[in-house]
Design brief:
The protein has 806 residues and is α+β, with helices and mostly antiparallel strands. The chain folds into five domains: 116 residues, PAS domain (Beta-Lactamase, 2-Layer Sandwich); 109 residues, 2-Layer Sandwich (Beta-Lactamase), CATH 3.30.450; 190 residues, GAF domain (Beta-Lactamase, 2-Layer Sandwich); 231 residues, PPM-type phosphatase domain (Phosphatase 2c, domain 1, 4-Layer Sandwich); 118 residues, Heat Shock Protein 90 (2-Layer Sandwich), CATH 3.30.565.10. The protein is built from 20 helices and 32 strands. The strands form six sheets. The protein has a six-stranded antiparallel sheet with strand order 13-12-11-16-15-14. A hairpin with a 5-residue loop joins strand 19 and strand 20. Helix 13 packs parallel to helix 14. The longest helix has 38 residues. The N terminus is likely disordered.
Length: 806
Amino acid sequence: MSGSEQTPGPDPGCPEDTAVLVVDQDGTIQGCTADAAALIGVVAEELRGASADGLFAGPGVWEMLRERATGGSCVSVRAEFRRGSGESPAVRLDLLPLEASPRPAFLVRVMPLAVADRRDEDEALLRAMFTQSGMGIAIHDADLRMTRANPVPGEPGPVLSQADGGPLGQSLRSLLVPEDGARIEGRLRRVVETGEALTDFVSSARLAERPHRERSVSVSALPLRGRDGTLHGVVVTFTDVTEQERSRRYSALVAAASSSLGQSLDVRRNAEVLADLLVPEFADFAAVDVTETVLVGKEPGDLLAGAPLLRVATAARDGHWPPALYPLDSVVRVQETESEMLRAGSARFARDISELRARIGDDESRKRLLLAPGATSFMVVPLHARGRVLGAVALWRAGERAPFDDEAAVLAEDIGSRAGLAIDNARRYTRERRMAEALQRSLLPQPVLAVTAADTAGFYVPGRTAAGTGGSWFDVITLSSTQVAFVVGTVVGHGLNAAAAMGRLQTAVRTLADLDPAPDELLTLLDDLVVRLADQQLPEAKDGSVRGATCLYAVYDPVGGRCSMASAGHPAPLLAPADGGTAETVKLPAGAALGLGGAPFEPVELDIAPGDVLAFLAGSLAQEGAREAVAERFGTGPAPGGRRPLPVQDLGQALLAPFLGEPPDDDAALLVARVRASAGGAVAAWEFPADMERVADARAETAGQLLRWGLDELVFTTELIVSELVTNAMRYAGGPVLLRLIKDRRLICEVSDTSQTQPHLRRARLTDEGGRGLFLVAQLTHRWGSRYTASGKTIWTEQLIEGPEE
């Protein structure tokens, strides 16, 4: 309510409630104020010359006043007026002797007794308010300079007394720390300007003489205006609420710890949050040290003397960590005393750090561990979880700040227990994450792999969140006849379960790839397998489900330069030509994800020139924005000046560079493959009709070609293999029969016919006349197998050229 809106009741001290009489030494009334008649009940003309003693109901009132008024002091008595109406109102008479000529005279103030009592109460109230020290009271003028004040609550001595040289006449800006004084003066100025009362405004009010001493006050203020509305200033009451504010801040600190600790699953991040939480609200310096085993996710052991701790977080009030203390990322070793203190589980503190300094002496390592420059108090808080010591928090207070006490220790233990739980949860997540990453990486192929058909480089990037590991994968599978398969996919879910599901899916793909099916046929078989696996999975097991996984399977043949591929819900790869042209997305229908049903998978075949680069993306890297960024950086042609193009590993790192600047929440995989063609003259092929006499021609052509290749030592065994396979093809499938030899790291022999019947190996009995052909082939070769083709089947064999491969 503003001053203009206030409607106070009648003022008991108003002039109409008070009369003043002038009485001479003989008790004769010489004069009176104009309002005396209204109070006494006699007009002024009748009062002049009348006896003062005749105004009162009791005898001798005037004489009693005269006898008491000795030495010029004012005396007061209570009496009753005698009125003509018979009323006898109670009044108080105040007699003040005057120096008058020619004879002494008196001033007599007459007030109704109720008015006099009210004035006495007001005066007593003011005396009580300005002499007590339980609550601060100050009066400021219109310029907010102090004109009157009582002693400051809780302050020794007359800090705000009216003694000479005190604060009277000064502003709050000069009495308090400038920012505190300015804050309070701003609110008082608003009271002066608007007339609105200020109630319970809590603010820091550190004295300028002791700026480091914590001090909070609750301020209330009212404007002071005269009867005519003139502003005289503002009256301010203030109460020291330092302890209450400290309790409130401590409660807020615990609430902040509950909400902020544990939001991250990173040990270091939780330690940093803890240090920032404690400084500057609770301490001036804070350091968080954890055992090295915690950082890598291992179970913490017993904290023995000499055990290493790593300083993972620091915080200082001024933002500068003292060089006299161990810096961030330094290794700290605790001694026997500290290890016992931490194992005890409760916070320990030194109110006066000088005692601790005396005990340490010249031990430099302990000085760097325990003594912060300028510190006056020290506390160490152990970080515990499940009965194990994870580390410790070291805290220091400096300057004139209150030292640590039992209340502070209880608060620190509460926050420390919450921090210990958050750090332990982060440690356990770190362990699971590392296990998932280790499992994931162990299942992926070598990062860099060079095969006949291509140079490949694979990259796996785990995400930065709890759900960032286990979903994306890639694989490179060598097939028969120098062909190679590129596989990329994403499994539903994350973590260990997803990594395990990825392993199951990868194993299934590798097993099916051994059958050499076409990409669309492999995905069809894989889809059926996923349905069976998903049916065996528990309904509540959502993470790591193979149902809904995506997979892209591509097969490249370096002999013909053809690449066929199909996709089960996975984005198509990027293709960059060897001549440095713009990378484009292969036009490949995505199809349905595995295990979800839908239309058959559609294959796509395309010609790829030697040096062309395929980039297969998975996870968050396959999302639209990331794909565009990769495509923009996908330059694979010759470098300026005729330099050779980047190796695939460097190319993959260049593609990932902007992506790795700020890893996404989910993981990602990238497989880069630069294809190659078979060497010139490394392939020889012949076609024969279904004529058994042509078997000899097949053997002769084979022997001649091996001699031209310099493989004399393989002529005999290869002739036997060709003779057996060509004979079986002509006998059981008819013609034509295609014979093809490929010289690679191994000698590859292929015989193709029009039959869809797959051969199988069996052990012939002693009485059997046949059935030993494939057994003989298996014994003479390093590997053998068969695959279906569009026109029939192909049986292939591999022989080592120069002994076992490295």
